[in-house]
Design brief:
With about 90 residues, the chain is an alpha+beta fold. It has one domain. It is about 45% helix and about 10% strand. It has 5 helices and 4 strands, in the order αββββαααα. The longest helix has 13 residues.
């Protein structure tokens, strides 16, 4: 017979403030880091509306934190999205 510890093959997520890390992902408030191709869709003016709508203020803040980009906490959604887009266009993400 094996103990419960031996049966569990998935480690518990590690949390530190707003960050959470599991075997598969690093998240901020449960939001995963978007890969560059997803960011491209968010910033493409010709992309489907659903892709652009993904960029809510909490989503953008999570991306800024996950990519280590400094931002003003009081920044508007438009300002913060602009910071993320600039970092994307400059190859920082």
């Amino acid at each position: 017979m094996t103990s419960n510890l031996e049966c569990s093959d998935a480690p518990r997520p590690v949390k530190d403030g707003v960050f959470s890390y599991s075997r598969d992902d690093l998240t901020v408030h449960g939001i995963r880091r978007a890969p560059p191709h997803v960011l491209a869709g968010v910033f493409d003016k010709d992309a489907p509306r659903a892709a652009r709508r993904k960029a809510t203020r909490p989503w953008v803040i999570a991306q800024l934190r996950l990519y280590g980009i400094e931002f003003p906490a009081s920044g508007s959604a438009v300002e913060l999205k602009g910071l993320l887009e600039a970092a994307y266009r400059e190859g920082k993400v």
